[in-house]
Amino acid sequence: MNLLASEIQASGFIELPVRATHAAMMRELPDIHGDPFDRLLIAQAMSEPLRLMTADGQLAAYSELVMPV
User: Rounded to an integer, what distance in angstroms lies between the CA atom of residue 52 and that of residue 48?
Assistant: First the structure.
């Protein structure tokens, strides 16, 4: 196990794999933001549901689960 993976595990965080439902949710998102990785993060937050904390205030238009910081 590499250092990053072991530190993540030691911190108590749980990895969130990319699932087919996340990819499918990306197709349902309005075209507010063009970055595919950001759109994937939004789709994961909405599918799970989880909060997404981001410095990109534009992403807050997608969902109340997005928290600009």
Answer: 11
